[in-house]
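lol so apparently i was supposed to do this last week
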Amino acid sequence: MKLSTSFTLLAAIIPYALAQSPEWGQCGGIGWTGATTCVSGTVCTVMNAYYSQCLPGSASSAPATTRPVSTPSGPTSTSVPAPAGTGLNALAKAAGKLYFGTATDNGELSDAAYTAILDNNKEFGQITPANSMKWDATEPTRGTFTFSGGDQIANLAKANGQLLRGHNCVWYNQLPSWVSNGQFTAADLTTVIQNHCSTLVSHYKGQVYSWDVVNEPFNDDGTWRQDVFFNVLGTTYPAIALKAARAADPNAKLYINDYNIEQSGAKATAMLNLVKQLIADGVPIDGVGFQCHFIVGEVPGTFQTVLEQFTALGLEVAITELDIRTTTPASQSALAQQQKDYQSVVQACMNVDGCVGITVWDFTDKYSWVPSTFSGQGAACPWDQNLVKKLAYNGIVAALTS
Ligand code: G3I
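anyway here it is w/ G3I bound
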């Protein structure tokens, strides 16, 4: 074959090859300029206005726009158009929620490509500092407070027109050693907690929508975590912290925040009993945060029911640290399952009036906490390492527009 003939053939083949999206690949949606047909054995299916996807099924080569919307089983079947140009926060607000937000951290703020997304309040209407308001960062030595890191995030929220979640006042982790190893009497430690919560919450008075006043008080079996606070003060320490926080900023919503309370069981029951007791005792408590650090394919089916048990007490609830991890490198099928999982978690919040908002624990795999904690796992966020939206994003959109 002559060289010129080869080029002619190649030129004929390449556009055809580019016109075929792979299984699980994108094949249409607002703003999509790539292939609109799918490889044999898959069918281009409209998932929502932003996203059509090649799902396993009878082969076709027609573009998504001319194809009837298929209705696969499970949560990805929702196909509700969203207005062009909207982001997750805009969609959440249009659906009656207060915000869609993300955690962020100070070290990430020099990444211009990252902040271009973070600062977009159509995408994120709320931010949470992942580390810089914690005890080790704010009161590293007794009575000496440093707010520079927290202030940077608070100022960013203000500049971006985003709500701010304070995280956190009292937690067993990331404590300076003067607290974790302190030999306190009950009276001493009460003063230490009051001073820390009061100074921290006062500093951000008027700037914070909600505070995680108490973080992770329970073990997974529903018993109290044996930390310095419980060991010295027993079950009384949450009330000490909550009262100090209320006095410091009467308008901030005061939360207790935990993980593995999303499914019915001993830990959720322990949290329910704690907030019932606090309410009965007249202790200020406004909400419970469900962290939602999940695993692909293992989102608890009872989540909505649990949320409703808490809102039935007159509390608000929020998804505060959502991410859904998998084994890395993530397979296409895991990412497709992750899309369904994100959709079902967000849908649970959508179905509960008292669920005020959803926060992801950073939006990109580039800065996720997961790989450094769970070896061989990650890919947990709705944007990938390269700040490109994953299928998970479409799952969130589908729920927000349901
Ligand atoms: O600041 C030091 C730095 O000086 C040092 O050079 C570096 C070396 O490892 O460590 C830095 O501290 C790290 C800190 O994040 C700030 O980046 C810690 O090692 C690291 O353990 C810490 O991880 C944080 C983790 O909480 C600690 O438990 C994660 O970033 C943060 O995302 C994570 O957030 C928690 C929530 O607060 C509560 N719920 C669970 C969630 C995930 O673990």
